[in-house]
Design a protein that fits this description.
62% of the residues lie in helices and 0% in strands. The chain is mainly alpha-helical and 185 residues long.
């Protein structure tokens, strides 16, 4: 019973929640200090979080798949945009500025990556909005279940596979860049 009350109070422990008899805000007692009134027992938040995670029921396979999928889809879009813009911008910079100044392929790729990163930052909220419009939502599980290793692994693997697929798909401009134009120069 006592543990259940502590679990219900998780995330609600704040300095402003403790008041004196007159309604004034009171300070939390430091850890290890004895509260003379006996009404407050300081519990470290990290310990409480650990106990919550230990008591959490593991997510089902369907919920783990949903966590994986919800994390993979936006990263496919980010990876695609990143590589597509970087390759396109790098090629354009190399072909246009390469005539005026000595510019290596790697320098052009670096400038293309900078442009791609700038565009990626500005389009991040749009990608997230589109994912929400598509109906991608996290499964309805508790915060403690999200902290479990299985949930974190599903999330990480979704991001890893999503960004990898997106980057590979984003390399499609390489199909349209011809080496014959470079050889004529």
């Amino acid at each position: 019973m006592r543990m259940r009350r502590a679990l219900d109070a998780f995330g609600q422990l704040a300095v402003g929640s403790w008041r004196t008899r007159f309604g004034r805000l009171s300070n939390k007692t430091p850890l290890g200090a004895v509260d003379p009134s006996g009404t407050f027992c300081a519990v470290p938040d990290e310990w409480l979080r650990k106990k919550l995670v230990e008591a959490a029921e593991p997510p089902t396979a369907g919920q783990l798949y949903q966590i994986f999928f919800v994390n993979a889809v936006p990263f496919i879009a980010f990876g695609f945009l990143d590589n597509f813009i970087m390759i396109s911008a790098g090629e354009y910079i190399e072909s246009s500025l390469g005539h005026f100044i000595t510019l290596s392929t790697m320098a052009a790729a670096g400038f293309g990556n900078t442009i791609s990163d700038i565009i990626g930052i500005t389009t991040a909220s749009y990608v997230e909005d589109i994912c929400q419009m598509l109906g991608l939502k996290q499964p309805r599980i508790t915060a403690a279940q999200f902290e479990l290793k299985s949930s974190r692994r599903a999330s990480s693997w979704g991001r890893i596979i999503g960004i990898t697929l997106g980057c590979l798909i984003g390399m499609c401009p390489l199909w349209f860049i011809s080496d014959e134009d470079k050889k004529k120069e």
